[in-house]
Amino acid sequence: MGRVVVEVMPKPEILDPQGKAVVGALPRLGFTQFTSVRQGKRFELEVEGDVTPEVLAAAREAGEKVLSNPVIEDVVLVAELTAELGGESA
């Protein structure tokens, strides 16, 4: 079984009120090194078998057509889920 991660973010020109709220709270909590926050969405898709280029292409298409609102969001990442991307280690 393989897993694919699809990440979606608001387009740069779209206001991100959740990100603004978080960036305002960070300094009050002692995190002064961050100057900007954008909040997005992450989807993890499971597939039977290995993650192939065809599976990644289908995941990108699903991201662009179903998982995101293309008017205000961009699909910014489509990749096999690995430990580096926050997946469980084998």
UniProtKB/TrEMBL annotation:
Biological process (GO), any one: 'de novo' IMP biosynthetic process
Major place of residence: cytoplasm
MF annotations from Gene Ontology: ATP binding; phosphoribosylformylglycinamidine synthase activity
GO cellular component: cytoplasm
Taxonomy, superkingdom: Bacteria
Keywords tagged on the record: ATP-binding, Cytoplasm, Ligase, Nucleotide-binding, Purine biosynthesis
Reaction(s) the record says it catalyses: N(2)-formyl-N(1)-(5-phospho-beta-D-ribosyl)glycinamide + L-glutamine + ATP + H2O = 2-formamido-N(1)-(5-O-phospho-beta-D-ribosyl)acetamidine + L-glutamate + ADP + phosphate + H(+)
Enzyme class: ligase
Stored Pfam families: PurS (PF02700)
InterPro entries noted in UniProt: PurS, PurS-like_sf
Enzyme Commission number, as recorded: 6.3.5.3
Subcellular location per the Swiss-Prot or TrEMBL entry: Cytoplasm
Task of the protein: Part of the phosphoribosylformylglycinamidine synthase complex involved in the purines biosynthetic pathway. Catalyzes the ATP-dependent conversion of formylglycinamide ribonucleotide (FGAR) and glutamine to yield formylglycinamidine ribonucleotide (FGAM) and glutamate. The FGAM synthase complex is composed of three subunits. PurQ produces an ammonia molecule by converting glutamine to glutamate. PurL transfers the ammonia molecule to FGAR to form FGAM in an ATP-dependent manner.
Subunit record text: Part of the FGAM synthase complex composed of 1 PurL, 1 PurQ and 2 PurS subunits.
NCBIfam families for the chain: phosphoribosylformylglycinamidine synthase subunit PurS, PRK05974.1
Name of this chain's protein: Phosphoribosylformylglycinamidine synthase subunit PurS
